[in-house]
Amino acid sequence: MSDAQAGPSTSSPLEAGPSTASRPADPTFTTNASEPSPAFERWRTSLARLTGLGLTDAERAEHERIRELQKLEKDWDRCEGWKKELMTTSPIIVFLLNHLRLSGCAFPASSIQCHPCDAARAGGFAPAAGVLLCQDRFASKKHMEDTLAHELIHAYDHCKFDVDWANLRHHACSEIRAANLSGDCRFGREVQRGFYAFSKQHQVCVKRRAVLSVAANPACADAATAERAVNEVWESCFKDTRPFDEIY
User: Which spans in the chain are helix H?
Assistant: First the structure.
């Protein structure tokens, strides 16, 4: 045998290692020339759902439906959370709820409902249903507090004075009181709405918002009729701060 044949092997340690052909393929990233890998497909689907790009019309419609349901759930959770906090910690809400109870019209949490609404309002009151809070219309918890106080004043009026909501003078009086006493016409709120008045700003706001609400009454013919009803009861109703001692 020659020296070359008998000597130690001169092959590289790397060459001497196990053959790469024997290593198992990673199933996560194994691809076929005609099919994307499962990992890539999951990534693509996730990205498409996030951005809405690359979806079929049917997939896009389903994507929007799911997003809308998620938003509704999120808005409802926030509204319900704020409602529970306000009913136990807000001085004005606790005060009004107590006076409703003392007047024989206790208002449990179930009588205050969170629901989505159109853009025209943030809340409402109906004698047969209770208070509506528009869950998708609140910029802050303070905004919701003012709205809830406004609607609870309507509930107090209905309980205490047996308001006939088809009577425009009755309706106008309650709207004047609610806008006057709830905090709805604070200077900061008016600035957010784009109204600036340094002379009798509060009174101007109360009257404007009362007219708008009465004009929306099905029994009201037009804005002029609403304004006339508000003016007829203005003096007595603006001065009436019950159940408060003064404007809150």
Answer: 3-6, 13-16, 38-51, 57-89, 91-102, 141-161, 168-181, 187-193, 201-215, 223-239
